[in-house]
Amino acid sequence: MSSIAFVTVVSSFLASSVEFVEAVTIVLAVGVTRQWRSALIGVLAALVALALIVGIFGTAIVLLVPIGVVRLVVGGFLVIYGLQWLTKAVLRAGGARAKHDETAIYQREIAALRAEPPVPATGMDWISFTVAAKGVLLEGLEVAFIVVTFGASANMLGPAAAGAAAAGALVLGIAFLVHRPLAAVPENGLKFAVGVMLTGFGTFWAGEGIGIDWPAGDAAILALLAGYVILALLGVYVVRGRFGAARMRPFAASREP
Amino acid sequence: MRYVRAFFGFWYDFLVGDRWELFTGPIVALFLAWLAVRASVPAALTGALLFALVSAVGGLSIAWAMRR
User: Do A84 and B27 lie within an 8 Å CB cutoff?
Assistant: First the structure.
């Protein structure tokens, strides 16, 4: 496996893990409070829709759009998306924003579902189906976006999809075994790592798209990634200094709402 | 019409959200770097410029978020 293929798999895997953890929280809440069968059918429907989106858009982009245009547009989107994740992770690690709390989200989701009409005695529970399908589809669209953009830029749609599928299988497998939200996943740390990767690769590809002939070729990616890591850690240090969150472990899962 | 609005609303929230600077900033950064490429600035400098501009956008957004 080439180094680009490896990085594509890892990036896609990490980004997808975060989104799958969020989707699993919703599905667990639906399954526990209402009906597992309808919730799982909803999950299946959403996964089929996502596979179609990745297959159709990914293949169309790779086959129909010139690679220079793909790298400029998609690289630009990766920078935009990567910066959103990275800046949010920096603010959370520095204590300026509350960290994601899957347990609190799970409790809120359960309370909302209990307020719905009761589960029908027979047949499909469409509330379970809709909530589970919508949750997986919305969280999954972010995965699809990353898989399509990352895969198309590097011409690595297969490895990107494989990374996402592996993350989905792992998160769903663990959730199936433990039957509760995966609150121990260091979501902020994952978002930090993925934010750096998306921003670094996006800068490289968008740069190629506008005609930058990067010195040292693909090795420039490593320099970009290292540069963004250093600046992001510096950002955490500055934010922490301002918000006095020095006692917090920056990338650990947390319990605050 | 409702679905069209919802469709574009979804993508607006997805890509722009409440931090418009993270959407427009990289576009401006890429445009400035493209101007540098057109002006035949050496590739290493143009690359460094793009990196610096993208980093500046991130730094600016964090600074704004801290003030809010």
Answer: no
- For residue A149, give the amino acid letter: T
DSSP state, residue B24: H
**Chain A residues contacting B via beta carbons under 8 Å:** 72, 76-77, 79-81, 83-84, 86-87, 90-91, 96-97, 141-142, 145, 199, 202-203, 206-207, 210-215, 220, 224, 227-228, 231-232, 235, 239, 242-243
Q: Chain B contacts of A202, Cβ < 8 Å? A: 26
Q: How many CB atoms lie within 10 A of CB B47?
A: 25
Q: In whole angstroms, what is the distance from residue B24 CA to residue A122 CA?
A: 52
By the 8 A CB rule, do A148 and A57 touch?
Answer: yes
**pLDDT at residue number A100:** 65
**Cα–chain center distance at A224:** 21
Say which residue the tokens 């989107």 belong to. A77
Out of A39-53, A61-75, A94-108, A112-126, the most confident range is A39-53
**Confidence grade of residue A206 (pLDDT, cut at 50, 70, 90):** very high
Q: Considering only CB atoms, which chain A residues are within 8 Å of B65? A: 87, 91, 96-97
In angstroms, the first-to-last Cα distance of chain B is 35
**Amino acid (one-letter) located at A67:** I
Tell me which chain B residues have a C-beta less than 8 angstroms from the C-beta of A91: 62, 65-66
Percent of the residues in chain A that have a pLDDT greater than 90, as a whole number: 17
pTM of the model: 0.76
ipTM for this prediction: 0.90
How many angstroms separate the CA atoms of A25 and A243, rounded? 30
In this prediction, residues A58-82 reach a mean pLDDT of 83
Identity of residue A185: V
* Domain extents in chain B: 17-67
Contact B43 A213 (CB under 8 A): yes
